Amino acid sequence: MAKTSLSLVLPDYAVLFGNELNRAMLPQLMKTVIAKAAFTHDSSGAYQQLMQLFSPDAPHNADLPMAALRQGSVNSLCADPCYLHPDRDKLLFFYRDLDLGVEEANAFAHYLQPLFDEFGGRLQVQTADQWLLQLAEPVMTQFSAKEGLHGQTVTDFLPTGDNAKNWLRLWNEIQMLLFECPLNQAREAAGKVPINSLWFWGNGVLPQSWQSWSLVSGHHDTLQTLVSLSHSSYQPIMEHFNKASDKQLHIEPFYVDKDWQTQLEGLSANWLIPAIKALKKWQLKELNLIVPEWGSYRLTPFSAWRCCL
Predict the structure, then answer these.
(1) For residue 237, what pLDDT is reported?
(2) What residues contact 119, with CB distance under 8 A and at least 6 apart?
(3) 159: Cα separation from own chain's centroid
(4) Which of 186, 210, 239, 273 is surrounded by the fewest CB atoms within 10 Å?
(5) How far is CA 165 from CA 84, 128, 141, 206, in A?
(6) Per-residue pLDDT averaged across 190-202, rounded?
(7) For the residues 57-80, what does the mean pLDDT come to?
(8) What is the percent of the chain with per-residue pLDDT over 70, rounded to a whole number?
(9) What is the CA radius of gyration of the chain?
């Protein structure tokens, strides 16, 4: 009989698992799982974790093939809006919770487009916080993925390699142009942070080999592309665990701006409790809780017996 497993990927749950005060809010069952499961620390973000789940041989590079996963061409780069905050002699990088709408994002892209015209580049807004830069030729410069850099100093993550100086020059020109942008003046008057730069990244190479999953469920902005590349079976909406598959993967994100306790209780009732019951009946051989930017917890039928339901 094939080894049945359930892997639960929990994006943004690190704010709970990685903080001692917030961990006190976890339901008792989750506290027991944390105490009894085998834990492996891994600070990789959600994009890197998903790449590893769908392609275990994917390299742990500074950058990821995000432009390709966003359906860009081989000559594409991610060029995502961000806020750079000066802190004495440092620049701190912020890309989350920018309060940027799609219409406003398109206005910013139109404002910046002349900077890219001289070398045949075209900005394309896919979502408010996800932009692509379509280029005439492949880029050989090395960039750093933005994931995990929120609030970090940018110094160690700037472009390197071929043509890096030109990309840094362009990056500085973008900041200068946005400094007096009327769109930013309106944002600051409304109490919002300015959009004062773009973060170039995402020109990593797609892996050659992929791992197929018998069932994938949930939502993530790269999930459907990864499912297609790996020839996995996809069910977008799955509210709870009800049947063990050979290899099942579900993504259950945490929303900081929604009620924490309701989400935690839902995760326990809909996924943890039925999965632990399946472990105890040997219908499921392995349960993995994968918390990006924190680590993973592994439960087996033996360790599941320690969890009282």
Answers:
(1) 85
(2) 135, 136
(3) 21
(4) 239
(5) 19, 28, 10, 26
(6) 97
(7) 88
(8) 97
(9) 21
Which residues have CB under 8 Å from 77's CB, separation 6+? 67, 132, 133, 135, 139, 143, 200, 201, 202, 203
- Phi then psi dihedrals of residue 116, to 5 deg: -95, -10
Q: Return the pLDDT at 308.
A: 67
For residue 233, what are its two tokens?
Answer: 């079976």
pLDDT at 92 over 70: yes
For residues 92 and 154, the answer to whether their CB atoms sit within 8 Å is yes
Q: Is residue 261 within 8 Å of residue 25, measured between CB atoms?
A: yes
Q: What does DSSP assign to residue 155?
A: G
Contact in structure between 124 and 141 (CB atoms under 8 Å):
no
- CA–CA separation, 19 vs 69, rounded Å? 31
Q: List the structure tokens of 23.
A: 């961990």
**DSSP sequence for 165-219:** HHHHHHHHHHHHHHHT-HHHHHHHHTTPPP--EEEEE--PPPPS-----SEEEE-
Q: From start to end of the chain, where are the E strands?
A: 5-9, 38-42, 76-87, 90-94, 122-127, 130-134, 152-153, 197-201, 215-218, 234-235, 247-251, 286-291, 294-299
Instruction: For residues 226 and 230, give the distance between their C-alpha atoms in angstroms, rounded to a whole number.
Output: 6
- Measuring CA to CA, how many Å separate 190 from each of 50, 76, 99, 186, 247? 37, 33, 11, 6, 48
Structure tokens given for 114: 């002349």
Point out which residues pair with 6 in neighbouring strands: 248, 287
Q: Where are the domains of the chain?
A: 5-58+207-304, 66-201
